[in-house]
Design a protein that fits this description.
With about 100 residues, the chain is mostly helical. The chain has four helices and no strands.
């Protein structure tokens, strides 16, 4: 995990790009299949975690979660498998939230 810290302007631009992606994705959902919404949310979370890492705001759990999301983004869009993976991720996050 790199310990690179972004300059505030770069961080602002990266976060604005993410907000732009989320808003345009929300609009796209009116014309896209329902399951695209799930992918868009997973993708947004992965992008945000990557920004956190680039800004030096990461830790082992965050890096691991981003890697898991990257794998999920690259896997098939099988709804049942994706639901199981998301259920496991939610439990993992819940355990981590209790620790923090």
């Amino acid at each position: 995990m790199k310990k690179y810290k972004m300059e505030p302007t770069e961080l602002k631009n990266e976060l604005f790009m993410l907000v732009s992606y989320v808003i345009t994705s929300a609009r796209g959902l009116y014309d896209e299949p329902d399951n695209y919404g799930i992918f868009r949310l997973i993708d947004s979370a992965g992008r945000l975690l990557a920004i956190m890492e680039s800004a030096g705001m990461s830790d082992d759990f965050i890096a691991s979660l981003r890697e898991q999301i990257d794998e999920e983004r690259e896997s098939s869009m099988d709804d049942d498998a994706q639901k199981r993976h998301l259920d496991a991720m939610v439990l993992k996050i819940a355990r981590e939230l209790q620790k923090r």
